[in-house]
Amino acid sequence: MESDDLGLFGPDSVTWKVHEEPVLLVAGLRALYLQALHPRAMAGVAQNSNYRRDSWGRLQRTATYVATTIYGTTAEAEAAGRRLRARHARLRAVDPVSGERFRVDEPDLLRWVHVTEVESFVTTARRAGLSLTDAEVDGYYTEQRRAAALVGLDPDTVPGTAAEVAGYYRRVRPELRMTREAAETALFLTAPPLPGGFSLPVRLGLTLGPPRWAYFGVAGTALGLLPGWARRLYGGLGLPTTALSAEVGLRALRLALAALPQRYREGPLQQAAKARAARLAAPALPG
């Protein structure tokens, strides 16, 4: 019997509304640029990841995890969270400043990754032209506390509104800096190897084959969408009109992706979730 479990969110959630947007591929890259500015978080990645050798595979695995938490059944999302927690629990790194050895699943680090990711998703969707009220933005952050719980965070310690996210960034900013690892990672993200025959994932199950100039455009847009304070940490990237130009480019990309047939814009997990929702909404046949 097919399950009609709608998972952690469902069709009436702000989360489904936001993640309907294929343009969130830019948001994922924006989040990575932000995350690289946290020296301890960056050390955890650099010392435990083969992202330079398997950057696209790592991106695909991350996209699969996010799609599972959003569109998978409750059991699938919880299983994905357990696997991630078990993997993180084994990992250690050395702080580049203090020399202290630490666990990569420290709550402060998990919270940084979570907040930068969800803030990038909802900010990018809104700047791309998705109509979201302030209440819906707050609703998105509140809903995403469920995803935070999957990685081992206490939901009560995770910002649940736009104001709380802004306050969180203000508190964390003194810890952020441009380190050598951050600079190397940013350069790698901007000009990664694009091996022949590989293509940039847009949705799980969908690939497009952009030439390098197209990827540069996406990376430049992601950088332009960073908060001003983050761009300043990266050396004041861009002109005063950089943010506006990035937003114009983002809206154009959204229109281009929206013109694709739906089957190319949605991955199998999203399609399966919508099918479950449709079965649940269908009127019962008379006995």
Question: What are the key terms here?
Answer:
287 residues; mainly alpha; two-stranded antiparallel ribbon; 60% helix; 5% strand
Could you please describe the fold and organization of this structure?
By secondary structure, this protein is mainly alpha-helical. It contains 15 helices and 4 strands. The chain has helices at residues 14-19, 24-35, 39-46, 55-71, 74-89, 107-128, 134-143, 145-150, 162-172, 180-190, 212-224, 228-233, 242-258, 262-265, 268-281; strands at 92-94, 101-103, 200-203, 206-208. It has a two-stranded antiparallel ribbon with strand order 1-2. Strands 3-4 form a two-stranded antiparallel ribbon. A hairpin with a 6-residue loop joins strand 1 (92-94) and strand 2. Helix 4 packs parallel to helix 15 (268-281). The longest helix is centred in the middle third of the chain and has 22 residues, at 107-128.
Instruction: Count the beta strands.
Output: 4
Number of helices: 15
Uncertain regions: pLDDT < 50 for 5+ in a row? 197-210
Compute the CA-based radius of gyration.
19 Å
Arithmetic mean pLDDT? 88
Which helices and strands appear, and what pairs or packs with what?
Elements: H1 14-19, H2 24-35, H3 39-46, H4 55-71, H5 74-89, E1 92-94, E2 101-103, H6 107-128, H7 134-143, H8 145-150, H9 162-172, H10 180-190, E3 200-203, E4 206-208, H11 212-224, H12 228-233, H13 242-258, H14 262-265, H15 268-281
Antiparallel strand pairs: 1-2, 3-4
